[in-house]
Design brief:
Strand order of the largest sheet: 1-2-3-4-5-6
Order of helices and strands: HHEEEHHEEEH
Number of domains: 1
Number of strands: 6
Distance between the termini: 36 Å
Helix content: 25-40%
Shape: globular
Length: 169
C-alpha cells in the first residue's frame, strides 16, 4: 500500500484506484463492508461486523451472521501473510473451538488459491473480490450444503457474541 492511498483514505474515508499501480488496494475495512453487504444480500437476518465480545477462545470474527437457523463466520484476508498467520490460532488448529457452522474466507483475487484450503481450511468456502468490487464464489465445498452445516461450532462463544450484540442495542 502506498502513502498517497493512505492519505486519500484519511481524507475521503475510502480507498480508490492507486495512481501508482492503477489498481484498487483493498483494506481490511473495505473487505468487511463488502462481505457484510454480501451477507445481507444472501438473506442473513443478523450481520455482525467486527463485534468484539468476551468469549472463551478470544476469537473475533471479521463478520458473523445468522441465517435461517445456522451461523456463518467470514474471515477477511488482505494478504497471503495474514492468511498464513491465521493458521496458528488455537480456534483454527482445534476447529471445534471456532465459531460458525459455515466458515468462509474473503480476500482479493489471487491472495488465496483453492488448493490452499487443505487441512485446517477443509470445507471452508472461498469468496474473492475483484477490481470491480464484485464478490465471486470460488470454492463451494462438496460436503457443505446450506441445510447441512459441517462445522461443529462453539455455541458458548456464539451466544456470548449474540448477547454482546443485544446489549448494545
Amino acid at each position: 500500500m502506498c502513502k498517497k492511498c493512505d492519505i486519500a483514505e484519511k481524507l475521503l474515508g475510502y480507498r480508490d484506484i492507486c495512481p501508482d499501480s492503477g489498481k484498487l488496494e483493498f483494506t481490511h475495512d473495505m473487505l468487511v463492508k463488502l462481505g457484510s453487504n454480501w451477507c445481507k444480500r444472501f438473506g442473513c437476518s443478523f450481520v455482525l461486523p467486527e463485534l468484539k465480545s468476551c468469549n472463551c477462545t478470544g476469537e473475533i470474527p471479521d463478520i458473523f451472521a445468522f441465517k435461517s437457523g445456522y451461523s456463518m463466520m467470514i474471515e477477511c484476508k488482505t494478504s497471503r501473510a495474514d492468511f498464513l498467520a491465521d493458521k496458528k490460532k488455537a480456534f483454527r488448529i482445534n476447529p471445534e473451538l471456532g465459531m460458525g457452522q459455515f466458515r468462509i474466507l474473503l480476500c482479493p483475487e489471487g491472495v488465496i488459491k483453492p488448493e490452499d484450503l487443505k487441512g485446517i481450511y477443509e470445507n471452508w468456502f472461498l469468496l474473492t473480490v475483484g477490481q470491480n468490487k464484485k464478490i465471486k464464489l470460488v470454492v463451494f465445498p462438496d460436503s457443505n450444503y446450506l441445510n447441512n452445516p459441517v462445522h461443529e461450532c462453539n455455541l458458548m462463544a456464539e451466544r456470548a457474541l449474540m448477547a454482546s450484540a443485544l446489549r448494545r442495542r
